[in-house]
Amino acid sequence: MGSIDIGDVSVTRVFEWAGDIATREQLIPSSDRRDWEANASLLVPDFWDPATESVKLCVQTFVVKSGGRTILVDTGIGNDKERLWFPTLRTEFLDLLTKAGAAPEEVDLVVATHLHTDHVGWNTTLTDGRWVPTFPNATYLFPQEDFDYWNPEGDDEPPGGPAYSDAFKDSVLPVVHAGQAQFFSGEHVIDGNVSITPAPGHSPGSAVVEVTSRGESALFTGDLVHSPMQILGHEHASCFDDDPARAATSRDRVLHRASETRAAVFTAHFDVDKAARIARQGGRYVVDSWTELD
After folding, report:
1. Which SS3 state, helix, strand or coil, does residue 153 take?
2. Considering all CA atoms of the chain, what is the largest pairwise distance in Å, rounded to the nearest integer?
3. Is residue 225 within 8 Å of residue 276, measured between CB atoms?
4. Distance CA 115, CA 131 (A)
5. What is the CATH number of the domain that holds 128?
6. E strands within 168-258?
7. Which domain holds residue 46?
8. What is the tens place of the pLDDT at every residue in 6-26?
9. Where, by residue number, does the polypeptide cross the bilayer (predicted)?
10. Looking at CB atoms within 10 Å, which of 25, 97, 177, 281 has the fewest?
11. Higher pLDDT residue, 167 or 105?
């Protein structure tokens, strides 16, 4: 757990899980090992193990406190949920959230950058055999395009199979049925410091959360970037991108924004207590520096 202030807004990283779910070649098929080796000083040991080829990933939530409200950006895997790629977990994640000043009853808003399995899990918890919203006083903001894409209550089976539809059924629909869901499409302003910008491609409704306060800024990019190699080469799609070309366009646009504003960039799966600062050098993006979280 680490924290940083972005102007008047506080950000705390709350860790849930870390492990190896893919090799370099599996995660980013278009990348070349020689490029990874050439950037070993950036990638090893935090992001890549050259001996095993595994890419190191984690799952986490960001607690954003702005204007007197407590906001969660993504909610991880969750407990008691059987998931492809991830183990069935029994963690003390809610205790960590409480230590970060975000006990379930204190959360005002939950923002899903997209509706994949590892971003919606703690939306609900198992209570008396039913999945119920974990955060009883919160509004949950869901991207409309993702909801429409995976909604299994329609006539057709949602794309992606059980890896996505199971999470939708136990972690999204119970929130909707409880009347706690609100949907966004396109630009969405949360308050004077926090807003949402669409970044489609990884999923139809993928979005980025931006914080701006007193001349400082931060970007929460969800799954736009899984590895620093996708910063160095924004054209590289991950194996989880629904529309690789569209994701690359979104990645380019967001990285350009990050380089212009010198934003602190927080990705969903970098297992480090620091934020990346992006710059443009020689026609490509680079990680210019890191800002440590306290």
Report:
1. coil
2. 58
3. no
4. 17
5. 3.60.15.10
6. 181-184, 188-189, 194-198, 207-213, 216-220
7. 2-292
8. 999 999 999 999 998 899 999
9. none
10. 281
11. 105
Residue 270 DSSP SS3: coil
pLDDT (average), residues 57-84: 96
Question: Rounded CA gap, 65 and 58, in Å?
Answer: 22
Cα separation of 270 and 287, whole Å?
Answer: 13
> Among residues 161, 168, 107, which one has the least CA distance to residue 138?
107
Domain count, the chain: 1
What are the tens digits of pLDDT across the range 204-245?
Answer: 999 999 999 999 999 999 999 999 999 999 999 999 999 999
Residue type, 25: E
Interval 38-57 mean pLDDT: 96
Helix (H) or strand (E) holding 94: helix 93-99
Handedness of CA 291, 266, 43, 236 (dihedral sign): negative
| SS3 call for 209 | strand
Phi-psi region of 217 (alpha: psi -120 to 50; beta: other; left: phi over 0): beta
pTM as predicted: 0.95
